[in-house]
Amino acid sequence: MWAQPQHALFLCLLTTSCSFVSSSFIKRTSEPVNTLAACNRLQGLLGNTIVESSAGPDYNATVNSPRNLFNTEFLPTCVILVTEAADVQVAMKTIFEYEVDYAVLAGGHSANIGWDAVNGGILISFERMTQVSYDATKDTITLQPGARWGPSAMALAPQGVAPVGGRVDDVGTGLLLGGGLSFLSPGHGFASDNYVELEVVLVDGTLVTATANNQYADLFRALKGGANRFGIVTRYEVKAIHTGTPDEKTWFGGSVTYPESSFEALARVISHFVHNNDNPNAVHLSIYERINIDGLDTTIATSWLFYNGTELPKSVFGEFLSIPTLTSNLTSLSYLDVALALAGSSTPGQGVAWGSTALVGNELVDDLYLETVRLWLNFSNTFVSQIPISTLAFTPVTLSQISYGRERGRNAIDPPLIGYNAILQTINLPEGQKTVPKDVEEGRQSLLQQLPTSPGIPLYVNECDSEQEVFATYGGFEFLKSTYAKYDPTRFNIRHMDGPKGL
Ligand SMILES: Cc1cc2nc3c(=O)[nH]c(=O)nc-3n(C[C@H](O)[C@H](O)[C@H](O)COP(=O)(O)OP(=O)(O)OC[C@H]3O[C@@H](n4cnc5c(N)ncnc54)[C@H](O)[C@@H]3O)c2cc1C
């Protein structure tokens, strides 16, 4: 049978009693009767193994697959389990014609409510398009949109290549559309800077191939940061990075943990790293965590430090290693080891909420880093009994990374030529809890407003709260707006799909 929107989330919508329902989410405009007709039409066109109602064998697994528990509360009227670009074309033509709400699901790791799920509309899922291949002649990697970074790295490692991809194995290719921060980024830009060719289904179902130099070059660039607003990508061809085979231990690094007493010192180090270091072989990811789960009550920070070389150079990582640590686990690694260093850290079954800020780094702004950590810790301690996991993560966006993107035709994010840190604030709620308590949400929003931000530095759309106007912070904002107007003149996507604001 076709699903009706009857989950808790829909009831929340009616009563507006749930604090997590953002104003950008409440914009269902398609009539249920249209959606039923569209699903019937699609079932006729594509068959019932591809178009499933709630009675279908894969429907439940599909709607339950988003990592954010809140997004598993949505009930699409039908799911389209596409197997090729032509299926996506048929789906989009019908969605466009019947004017129905829709969502696209790839790896399911969006933190934002409704960005990969839809209530009462049509969900296009890429779970059956997961192939990854390497073309040695072209020296490129082709990813179907359902691929995930861990399995992709494992499949390609024997050939000595890897895409510039995510740092957690289970994350999917939606990462590319938001830009993409990788352990390879200092040397190879945002992940999407490595696009070679994209196959894209436009909002009306037209299939186009976009490259840096053809008539769709503007679309090609917009898809480097424009998230889910510019069409549905059905094939990504990206540059292959020659990272070596699993036997080649050409990297060095691992994780170092710090006690709370080192938090301020670590904040300074993170600030300095992005200012002082422009070595394309050096990268870190540093995460502060306030954890109160299963009797474990701890406050800790972890830095993952990696260098494409035989040791961690003191000139680059000395500050990280000179402050008091709890543990240190540093060794020779293959790139596959690096790509899988955080494997298994993605935890499904919990409601999550994220927010983004960004800071340039140097000694003069250390105070802003200290303030960021202090505000976050204060928030985390205040709500420790309600939030089992509260984190603050720092990813350096180095000068070399930004320069690389410019050399490859610029992305839509287009930061100024200044190294900065993309800063992510996250909470995970208790397993199974389906709402964010009102006081927690108010505290989180207040934290987001108070966190310092460097003017002119872009926020990261893959790490933002849905209320944040991320596109407006991009260097390519005007370009993005005009390109959106060109490819979606009736603003169909914005009217019928949840995603970033501001176009
Ligand atoms: C545990 C964890 C670790 C993370 N690590 C990193 C990291 O290392 N680096 C980083 O940059 N980000 C990271 N992220 C953020 C991540 O990049 C974003 O959440 C990203 O959107 C996830 O993509 P997905 O395919 O997994 O998720 P989805 O939720 O399936 O997709 C994300 C968004 O993209 C849209 N979308 C997906 N595929 C398509 C397509 N083919 N065409 C059009 N729209 C599409 C979806 O509709 C949705 O709005 C992480 C997130 C989590 C939860």
Bound molecules: flavin-adenine dinucleotide
Mean pLDDT: 94
Low-confidence stretches: 5-27
Structure annotation, total helices: 16
For the biggest β-sheet, the strand order reads 15-12-14-13-17-18-16
The shape, in one word, is globular
Helix/strand-derived category reads: alpha+beta
Q: According to CATH, what is the class of the largest domain?
A: Alpha Beta
Radius of gyration: 22 Å
Q: Strand content of the residues, in percent?
A: 15-25%
CATH architecture of the largest domain: 3-Layer(aba) Sandwich
- First-last Cα distance: 36 Å
Count of domain modules: 3
Major β-sheet, in short? 7 strands, antiparallel
Give the gist of this structure:
Belongs to the oxygen-dependent FAD-linked oxidoreductase family. This protein is an alpha+beta fold. The protein has helices at residues 8-15, 32-46, 59-63, 85-98, 149-156, 174-177, 185-188, 217-222, 263-276, 314-322, 335-339, 366-382, 399-407, 438-450, 477-487, 492-496, and strands at residues 51-52, 78-81, 102-105, 122-125, 132-135, 140-143, 161-162, 195-201, 207-210, 232-239, 241-242, 251-259, 282-293, 296-307, 327-333, 352-360, 389-397, 420-428.
Overview of the molecule:
With 503 residues, this protein is an alpha+beta fold. It has three domains: 8-125, 2-Layer Sandwich (Uridine Diphospho-n-acetylenolpyruvylglucosamine Reductase, domain 2); 132-244 and 477-490, Uridine Diphospho-n-acetylenolpyruvylglucosamine Reductase, domain 3; 251-470, Vanillyl-alcohol Oxidase, Chain A, domain 3, CATH 3.40.462.20. It is 29% helix and 22% strand. It has 16 helices and 18 strands. It has helices at 8-15, 32-46, 59-63, 85-98, 149-156, 174-177, 185-188, 217-222, 263-276, 314-322, 335-339, 366-382, 399-407, 438-450, 477-487, 492-496, and strands at residues 51-52, 78-81, 102-105, 122-125, 132-135, 140-143, 161-162, 195-201, 207-210, 232-239, 241-242, 251-259, 282-293, 296-307, 327-333, 352-360, 389-397, 420-428. A seven-stranded antiparallel β-sheet has the order 15-12-14-13-17-18-16. The protein has a five-stranded antiparallel β-sheet with strand order 5-6-10-8-9. A four-stranded mixed β-sheet has the order 1-2-4-3. Strand 8 (195-201) and strand 9 (207-210) form a beta hairpin. Helix 2 (32-46) packs antiparallel against helix 4, helix 9 packs antiparallel against helix 10 (314-322) and helix 9 packs across helix 12 (366-382). The longest helix is centred in the last third of the chain and has 17 residues, at 366-382. The chain starts with 7 loop residues before the first helix and ends in a 7-residue tail after the last helix. 53% of the residues are buried. The structure holds flavin-adenine dinucleotide. Keywords: FAD, Flavoprotein, Oxidoreductase, Signal.
